Amino acid sequence: MQRDVMNYDVLIVGAGPSGLAAAIRLKQLANEAGKELSVCVLEKGAPVGAHIFSGAVIDPIALNELIPDWKSKGAPLNTPVTEDQFLILSESKSWAIPHKLMPPLMNNKGNYIVSLGDVCVWLGQQAEELGVEIYAGFAAQEMLYDDQNQVIGIITGDMGRDSTGQTTSQFSPGIEIRAPFTLIAEGARGSLTRELEEHYGLRKNASPQKYGLGLKEVWRIPAEQHKKGLVQHSLGWPLNNETGGGSFIYHYGEQFVSIGFVVHLDYANPHLSPFEEFQRFKTHPEIKALLKDGKRLSYGARAISEGGLQSWPVMIFPGGAFIGCSAGMVNVPRIKGSHNAMKSGMLAAEAVFEALNNKMDDGGTPNLLQNYPIALKTSWVWKDLNAVRNVKPLLSRFGSWGGTILGGFEMWLTAFGLNLPWTLQHKQADHECTKPAALMPKVNYPKPDGVYSFDRLNSISLCNIAHEANQLCHLNLVDKVTPIKINLAIYDAPEQRYCPAGVYEIVKNQEETYLQINAQNCIHCKTCDIKDPTQNIVWMPPEAGSGPTYSGM
Q1: Which residues neighbour 50 within 8 Å (Cβ) at sequence distance 6 or greater?
Q2: Of 260, 274, 211, whose CA–CA distance to 231 is shortest?
Q3: Global pTM?
Q4: Which of 69, 91, 215, 341, by CA, is between 20 and 30 Å from 144?
Q5: Tens digits of per-residue pLDDT, 289-345?
Q6: Contact indicator for 308, 329 with CB cutoff of 8 Å
């Protein structure tokens, strides 16, 4: 197929914190050196920020380095953390852990409660002011390689194909965007990341990547219930010891509360529903008291990379690198990763700029970005993640309570400069942890009350989903028989429960039983691609601009 071609010096896939930080840093370096440098950022969300989803409490350490005068430039970091609380929940009560018992790295002093989407919108503005070209509403569909097996760019997805893949009157072929270097900043479980890892064998020496599913709602609550700057986290009910996860509640702005729940996706029981666990959490007496007479404004969900350093792939490949949560930058106990993601983008930008300057005069291909992983390992990103590298494996081995106690002990040792000499590896990928339904207890969830708890369809109505009904389905089955023959027969079709958006539905009629995929409900969380026990579901970007348009998330 004949495609248009656009050429840049650097291509960045994804306008999240890491991608935008990389773009800004590249332009800063070029301006300081008095050189011209063309930088393109590609974003699948209709506007920048549309697909950005996070808690979020942000550590400004990377922003301080990237844009030291961010306050005077109006960065939307307006609510400093004023108080930390960590709670243990039973079904009807809560107990606060004394702050003095918490490892120092858990302290949120100096951090800010933000909408990460708003932060990315602002970062995008800073990048464009520097001359970065940002194309929102364009999805990178596949990688481009040259005859030397080096990445030379991407192809964007075609527009105007119908549900059978045939071209319509609105058809427009994708374009080739080429660059000497491509930085992959897709976030957790990106489709290009998966392609590159397989193509170059970049995960051969890495532990399996581990994930959590984060669900979040934004509420406006009465002024007398709001404590601006308060950060709360909890462990315990409604999850049992074998299921990792917990809650977050952040008070910010004018009577806004971000309330959310994270469920680690290595849970064993296929009857469990992370969405229903979140809804049940909100029926706790203390949470109901917080939300009483409040209004739910928005909802969303997103997979989180939780594997840590031991799950990093090889970070570079011929012609590019992974940055941000394409590799996995989340500090699990801190529930933070944006600062590390931004710094990784900045370090990759510096390595790219150096490589472009050193490019062979005879037009030869650039070398691998060898300085990027070296810079990562000598940066505070490595220090931040190395201090907690064993926490997630301990949670997987010893459950929520044993893992939390042992992980906390190790974090205290690290605070005193006593680093343990070993790194625990992850034994299984999350989908391998799922056990047959017959071996696990069923979970009976209460019906939503429509006041504090809600169903999936009611919730995704708050996601502002845009999806052309007749477009090609972006959720692909490797084998069409597997959903019924294996997933339903052995695991009771867990895709009906782990999906937080009601995408997957088992339909039974007189003629047949089949899996119905309601792709128009998809909010791009990637959980199906991660948790499907047979790895039969492959998530690909839908037609550009599709998916949620989050506001204030």
Answers
A1: 117, 136, 547, 548, 549, 550
A2: 260
A3: 0.95
A4: 341
A5: 999 999 999 999 999 999 999 999 999 999 999 999 999 999 999 999 999 999 999
A6: no
